[in-house]
Amino acid sequence: MSLFKKIQRLVKKEPDLIPAPDLSRILRPDEMPKSAVSEPEAETSIDLDAWLARDLKAISEAWGDASMDNASGERVEAFRTAVHNFHGVSGAYGGGALTRLTGSLQRLIADDHDVQMQRALINLHIQACQAASLASADESDPIAMAVCESLEEQVEQILANRPA
Description:
mainly alpha
């Protein structure tokens, strides 16, 4: 099924799951909403911390919806989309641990296997993303890299043991 058809189906079933598009990343600073621009340098500066906080909140909230026992497929797909989007912009936040963690999380939730079975590991990924964002963890942070390596190894073990 094409992405367009999935979005159409999702909008019809649960329109509140589709977030409003974030155009602030493609608009000039003078066209952006005040919440995305830091003061007093409103003309030249973008508040990446505000974007990072919003993206972390988006994956946390989407996971809260998707992790419920009776979560619909649309809620799980909304979580996958939030993780995918966050991974895509993680480089703007410094890359490093955030890019590795979101990449590992994407691999874990990429297919149609039940995400409910991996709640603990998904929670650990999200918490690690939150911790990495507070510490601005890059490749030179040995603790962040050890956490990334451990979570990546766990994901690889799960993927290797999944039935095809």
